[in-house]
Amino acid sequence: MMKKFIYGKLRFHFAIITCIATFVSLTVFSTVLYALNSYFNWDIMFSGRFYVWVFLIILSGMISAFITTYVGLQIIEPIEVLRENMTKVSAGDFTVELDPEQKVEEVSQLYRDFNLMVHELGGIDALQNNFVSTVSHEFKTPLATIQGYAQLLQDPEIDDDTQQDLSKRLIVATQQLTQLTDNILKLTKIEHQGISLERKIIRIDEQIRQALLFLQAKWEKYNISFNIILERTQFEGNEELMQQVWVNLLDNAIKYNHQDGEITITQHELEDGRIGFDISDTGIGMTPETVNKIFDKFYQADSSRLNSGNGLGLSLVKQILKLHQAEIKYKSSLGQGTTVTVILPKHTKAND
User: Residues 99-107: what's their mean pLDDT?
Assistant: First the structure.
């Protein structure tokens, strides 16, 4: 009811403005005609030309009213449409979209800005909802673990070695919780808001070596040896996100390897000109079921060292590579190790 009243009031004001504009134009035209008649002594009031002038005055008034009304409606109608859709957005409907192809350029720009605003609001809303639902579901286990360690540390009868061990486990659990939070935020932002990539030329071979240095403490712990055959390879992409890819993939190759295992890192060129990077380990391998589900969010296979992850790493990796028009493939057999292949698009340059 209020909305109809507002629209009716808007139309009433516009009608008043149209009438005033028409009256003013007729008055000005008549005044000019009277002045010309007086100055030149045309005496058109008593000649056949008088009716011609009257007709022209009326016609000009009608044309003025029509043009004013038409132009005004081109603005009023889109404003009404905009108000209706703004009401929907305020009620939480972020699926609305206005057609930016309008006759008035200013209205077209207004609609484009509105669509952009709705898209951003929808992304924020989805990000918030997804984050809240995910956190409420996935934080239960790590929080329960932290609570359990904290309660054990309160036992006055535990010895120093046990206390030291529980303290280390508590630190690891909090680090995993921090990593889980970070990965959830990154993944939901990529999925629901998108990321505007800041691209630059990066060295893929150098990024892989930097990732190995970052993970040195882990692979030294398991005494893992490496066989690395990489060429100087340049790629235009987001440096931080691509570094996250190699850290995640190499971390998995280390985590699921055997003591004294091996990791081989090589690259090759495909027939269509794309560059592939293979990371092969001699670890525990995966079943076909696990390979099929490995990119599902929060999916974790049943293995001894898998509890140190959160099932988000590979989902994040796949989303990042998708942003770079790249692919990722897994080949694995249970007990025989795993090979993951990252295929970068054609504009990747090797031996440059």
Answer: 74
